[in-house]
Amino acid sequence: MEKRRSLLLQALRQIFLERRGILKMGQVWLPLSLILFSGTRLASRAELHASLFLLYAVVSKGLATILINDLADREIDRRAAKERWITSLPSPAAIMLPVLLLASGFPALILAGGGPLVLASFTASMILGILYSLKPVRFKERGLGGPLAYALSAAILHALVPWALFRPALWLLPLLFIVVTGDKLVQMLFHQVLDFDSDRAEKVGSFAVRAGRDRAGRALRQILNFALAADAVLLICVLFEVAKEHSPFLWLIGPACLLAVFAAGLYARVISKRARTSTALTERLPWPYLGISYVLFYLLPPLLFLTLAQRQPEIWILAALSALWLLGVSLNILLYDRRK
Fold this sequence. Notes:
- The chain is an all-alpha fold.
- It has one domain: Orthogonal Bundle (Farnesyl Diphosphate Synthase).
- It is 76% helix and 0% strand.
- The protein contains 16 helices and no strands.
């Protein structure tokens, strides 16, 4: 009984509190908030209904692919002394859990009102996510195919699926798709460069290992510049859209976002080092990129939902949920202990 309770607590911690759990799916809040803010084909009450089912589908697919990756990397993680709760379950249960999570995403999207394009997009994202980890394809060990498959899977899920579900303005789709793709490529390439020595020792055929540390580092810098430019363009577009509303509250969003970018940069470069909560991410990536990413993906959505809630009270539910996501990510950053 004690062992089961310990395993349950470990699972809950990794799912709800750590960055490898649902916090990793926070990119969906940016597309969802911008889509609802710009106007959709659905009535206001239907928007909330569709949004909640969409969020479930995104979380179920995201968690399932993380669990599949943990199962596929069981031996590598064991040698690296990494604990993954899913690997402690009996094999039938460990396999069935991600399968059920993936399957449950389809009825959720159907209940949300998703048509063939929504379901086809979700399927494409799911297949890429599975093949990223599983043999015989295992994009993870196929050089550049790994980062591309990972980024495309996330961009389809977080940008294309919501857009196809709500059908807002067309200009949102390419911008959101590019921004999410850039964010995921930066994350993937950064961790591959960081894990270069361990991956080479484990004979993992990642892009960094196949291309070499220097070449992978140059590729990371180029993608970083691209992602930073895309983030800045999207933020400017959002601020222009906000300005059209002529609301006193909305005029505060621009200064709040700009202030948050510099505050995030100050934390990454100064405060986190003094507090010993800095990570390789905050120490090595440019502070403008870290600041704009934090503002776009986590701070901006609750602000936009709060604005929408002024005229659509039911949107308070989304505002509260996105604020909890913001709180979780922020605490995860602030309380990180690099000495552990």
